[in-house]
Design brief:
Elements: H1 2-21, E1 24-28, E2 31-33, E3 39-43, E4 50-58, E5 64-72, E6 79-80, H2 98-101, E7 104-105, E8 124-132, E9 146-153, E10 160-166, E11 169-175, E12 182-188, H3 198-205, E13 209-214, H4 228-240, E14 244-254, H5 256-264, E15 269-272, H6 284-292, E16 299-300, E17 306-307, E18 332-337, H7 345-359, E19 365-370, E20 387-391, E21 398-402, H8 407-440
């Protein structure tokens, strides 16, 4: 009897050991849009087994990014990342999408990196792996127990890309699948310059014809030629496209792009980390020269990272030196990170609200303000960058800018603001138009 019991215990031990060596890792959906949540479940573990889940991405710049969480399986040998808390790693707690937003460059990487998608018709490939025990380093020296390769896309199936180079305007138009006409968005990034396409591609994946505008590229466009009529021409190009509904257009600007958006005053406007205190009323070159004249206000932190937020402080009381937001007649959504170290967005939002209140149009203004968020508020589940390399406009000189923010609250700001931006665009470009059409009937 004793021998039979001992044999049974050994058989059970072998079975459990084999089970623990062959965990079943599931990531659903395995292929989806970058703003789509996924669900990670790990089965076939021992009860209360310690494991590490790790994500790894090899960027287009050939850098490796990773995040990892430490988990303990339940009594059934299951880890459900949506429901279970990480007890350590690059994040702690119940954070279903943290394997994406808590990504950092692996130890030994180049300093000041920023992860940005260049080719939006190729996926952002993320490998999710499970390791035995709670591991925090040396992953390349350890064999993973299970691995799943996932794809995160900025373009939904059927999205088209059209190069724009007409009337001296350069950019990329992304068109949703289908016959149209579609509501349109003119998408403008900030002072980093270049042609940034991934947000416009993602907007097209949600049904908006989106024009990613190029307006800061010294090798392709003379800054002195970029006056207000450049942006007006871009708006007209988008408006006149046969697949775009001309009466359903919005502007979306980040940082310096918000200054342009507020100056144009379209049918509706989304400003992320922007200000009205730097109007673009002449040329972009003049606006940058004005900023360069205030560079003595720039300070650096203990790591020699540049802090620019003081450039426009204090917010001037002279209305002639600000965008006349009191005259705005369209809905405006402001997205503000309260730890923005690059631009005085908190003070700008307060002054805009006061100006619009005095003019009686503050009902048009919605402010989303996020404690602990920094300047670079991007689409959700992308990594947070407290600082990164930056090439100064008009100078062949690279610096490291402090953007601000803390990882977890910044991740919340990205997820929450993106959801509300899509709702805002839906309300003012789609539902309002449907209501007007029904009223005509």
């Amino acid at each position: 009897m004793y021998m039979k019991t001992t044999l049974l215990v050994r058989v059970l031990h072998v079975a459990m050991t084999e089970s623990s060596c062959c965990p079943l890792l599931s990531v659903r959906p395995q292929r989806g849009l970058v703003d789509e949540k996924f669900r990670i479940v790990l089965r076939n573990l021992l009860p209360k087994q310690e494991v590490t889940l790790r994500s790894l991405h090899h960027s287009e710049d050939k850098d490796f990014w990773e995040a990892f969480g430490h988990y303990i399986s339940d009594e059934n040998g299951v880890v459900n990342v949506v429901e279970d808390a990480s007890v350590g790693g690059t994040y702690v707690g119940r954070k279903p999408m943290a394997l994406l937003w808590s990504m950092k460059p692996i130890p030994g990487s180049r300093p000041g990196l920023r992860l940005r998608k260049k080719d939006v018709f190729k996926p952002l490939v993320v490998t999710v792996s499970v390791y035995g025990g709670h591991v925090s380093k040396g992953f390349s020296e350890i064999k993973a127990l299970a691995t799943v390769v996932t794809e995160r896309w900025y373009t939904a199936p059927g999205v088209q890309r059209v190069d724009i180079d007409e009337h001296e305007v350069k950019g990329t138009l992304f068109l949703p699948p289908g016959p149209g006409p579609f509501p349109g968005v003119l998408d403008m990034w900030g002072g980093g310059g270049g042609l940034v396409e991934y947000r416009a591609a993602l907007l097209a994946s949600h049904g908006y014809a989106s024009l990613a505008l190029e307006y800061l590229a010294a090798d392709r466009i003379n800054l002195s030629d970029i006056k207000n009529n450049y942006f007006e021409k871009a708006y007209q190009i988008l408006q006149s496209h046969p697949l775009v509904a001309p009466e359903r257009l919005a502007l979306l600007g980040l940082s310096f792009g918000s200054c342009v958006a507020l100056t144009l005053v379209p049918q509706c406007c989304v400003c992320i980390s922007g200000s009205h205190a730097q109007p673009v009323d002449k040329s972009v070159e003049d606006a940058f020269m004005n900023l360069n004249n205030k560079m003595d206000k720039v300070v650096v932190d203990e790591n020699n990272h540049m802090i620019w937020r003081n450039i426009i402080l204090p917010i001037t009381s002279d209305p002639a030196q600000k965008v006349a937001v009191g005259g705005i007649k369209c809905p405006v959504l402001l997205v503000v990170g309260e730890d923005d170290q690059n631009w005085a967005t908190v003070e700008s939002a307060e002054d805009m609200k006061e100006m619009m209140s005095k003019a009686g149009n503050d009902r048009l203004l919605t402010v989303l303000s996020y404690p602990g968020a920094g300047h670079l508020i991007e689409p959700p589940y992308t990594p947070h960058f407290r600082f990164s390399n930056f090439m100064l406009q008009g100078q062949n000189h690279k610096v490291i800018l402090l953007w601000g923010g803390q990882t977890e609250p910044h991740a919340h700001a990205q997820e929450d603001s993106w959801e509300k931006i899509l709702i805002f665009l839906q309300q003012h470009l789609c539902e309002r138009q449907d209501f007007m059409a029904q009223a005509k009937l």
